[in-house]
Amino acid sequence: MNALKNATTSAKVLGAAGIIRPYSPVVLTRLVKVVKKWGTGPAGGFASLAVRIPDQVGLIDELGELTWGELHQRSNAVAHELRKLGVGEGDSVAVMCRNHRGFLDATIGASKLGADVLYLNTAFAGPQLVDVLAREKPSVVIHDQEFTDLLAAAPAVQRVVAWTDGEVDDETLEGLIARGSREDLDPPDSHTRIVILTSGTTGTPKGAPRKEAGIPAAVSLLSRMPLRSGWRTHIAAPLFHTWGFAHLALAMLLGSTVVLRRRFEPEEFLATAAKHRCDSLVVIPVMLQRALQLPQQTLDSYDLSSVKVVAASGSALPGDLGIAWMDQFGDNLYNIYGSTEVAYASIATPTDIRLAPGSAGRPPHATVVRIFDDHGREVPPGQTGRIFVGNGLLFEGYTGGGSKEMIDGLMSSGDVGRFDSAGRLYVEGRDDEMIVSGGENVFPKEVEDCLVRHPGVVEAAAIGVDDNEFGKRLRAFVVLTEGDAPTEDDLRDWVKTNLARFKVPRDFVFIDELPRNATGKILKRHLAAD
Fold it and tell me: Cα dist. 442→1, 222, 462, 466, 503 in Å?
């Protein structure tokens, strides 16, 4: 009965999104052959678009437009040339590229060989990069020219330069494409694994591999987020991150035109969405935060009326950011809570964000979320505990060994939270961030949200520090607005007015900018070291 219900729901969701549609017998036959041969990962997914809509523009970046047919031929050339470099089935190709066509060329080309694709964070420091490459041992690294010096300290490995800013000595991706054969390849015996690295906010990033998620992953997102076939999607979130890659994978099913820019700049982000009449935007919350810091006259000058969905994930929406965005650009914001390991745990719709700004919404289709205490017992609504998630998208375990804790088939997200009486999930922070202050549990996120609601605060982060009287207290790091900024006493009174006294930070540190990684997450270990 459950299988029938899931199949019915999936068909309904996919039909509404325009994924299930009539095709001519010739096209349908070719599609079936492609998927049977290549699967639903990057190799098969993008090849299917070359069959379905070869002349449709598939990608727009700073170099111009490429059709799905052109991307298919380019990736064939990359695959043939990578094979000459010794890449074969089961090998690994590392990709350290910003958001541009080279990211797709490398991903699809490697996938057609059955090689695993390892995505490297473009904000890696040298030691992190050395550690990851030494552990993962890729056969080839495809990278943008700007990372050449950084890679010089890494273990010796063949390198191919994707985006060039000038003359280069190494092989280039465009060089491979120019001389490579456009002929279709024979499919490998096994399909590619995509290896997404964890954010590394607490140490060396871990590799979290995934096999093809395909239809289940799409249904999970589309069940609570109304993306549609044929839209133009500006993926501003980094493609190497779970969230950016998820929408690249969705483009394979939806036939979306993907609009990319190598770097995020707040005004250019709005200009890109307006110029290309984008239907959806894919972001991390700090991008919205920075866009809304632009002058009101600038915000009002961009017409984003074509945008129907703004899909945000990667970190929590601080304070009233979600409401501020929707007040400016309409009720189009969907906030997704999840992690590299558990994928999508819950989705907050615009209605959820309006009614319960701090919530993470409700679990999507075929996803179970439970809250357990430290003894593995489920806790009732309203009580805080550890968040565990079950779905068909859980990762397989880290490439270096180990996994996340499991209870009754559900995987730990690494966060703590609670459900309210309406079934909405609230994420209160990382399970290792909670402090006990004077015998009371204190979660930094609640204090951070309170601080950013102050009109004189741009952003804030809090960490636990030792305190002789209370054992632990919070130290708040605050970025202030320009002009008539609040004092430390002003902020202390603000928190005291809105929260319990034991949640008031012991001290405040005013800084110009919070340290973040490339996916927008605050690097609290850097704050603790200061």
Answer: 44, 35, 11, 14, 6
Amino acid 387: pLDDT: 95
Look at residue 58 and tell me whether its pLDDT is greater than 90: yes
Q: Which pair of structure tokens corresponds to residue 517? A: 């990684």
Q: What is the pLDDT of residue 343?
A: 83
For a pLDDT cut of 70, what percent of the chain falls above it?
94
The answer to whether the CB of 274 falls within 8 A of the CB of 268 is no
CATH of domain 222-402: 3.40.50.12780
CA dist list (Å): 102 to 3, 211, 246: 40, 22, 17
Lookup: tokens for 460: 């804030």
In the chain, count of helices (H) and strands (E)?
A: 18, 25
Asked whether 281 and 307 are in contact (CB, 8 A), the reply is: yes
Residues paired with residue 338 on neighbouring β-strands, in sequence order: 344
Measured distance between the N- and C-terminal CA atoms of the chain, rounded to whole angstroms: 57
**Superfamily for domain range 435-529:** ANL, C-terminal domain (3.30.300.30)
Instruction: Give per-residue pLDDT as tens, 217-239.
Output: 788 889 999 999 999 999 999 99
Helix (H, G, I), strand (E, B) or coil at 155: coil
Nearby residues of 397 by Cβ (< 8 Å), 6 or more positions away: 209, 403
DSSP string, 310-370: EEEESS---TTHHHHHHHHH-S-EEEEEEETTTEEEEEE-HHHHHH-TT---B--TT-EEE
Record: fold of 57-211: Rossmann fold (3.40.50)
β-partners of residue 64 are 61
Distance (Å, whole) CA 353 – CA 164: 42
Report helix, strand or coil for 17: helix
**pLDDT at site 528:** 78
Is 347:224 a contact under the CB 8 Å cutoff? yes
Q: Sign of the C-alpha dihedral, residues 60, 63, 69, 74?
A: negative
**What is the DSSP code (8-state) at residue 465?**
E
Q: Do domains 57-211 and 222-402 have the same CATH topology?
A: yes
DSSP sequence for 363-416: --TT-EEEEE-TTSPBPPTT--EEEEEESTT-----TTS----EETTEEEEEEE
The tokens 């880290």 sit on which residue? Answer: 398
Q: How far apart are CA 341 and CA 389, in angstroms?
A: 10
pTM: 0.87
Number of Cβ within 10 Å of residue 115's Cβ equals: 25
Residue spans per domain, the chain? 57-211, 222-402, 435-529
Beta-carbon contacts of residue 460 (< 8 Å; ≥ 6 apart): 318, 447, 448, 451, 452, 476, 477, 478, 479, 514
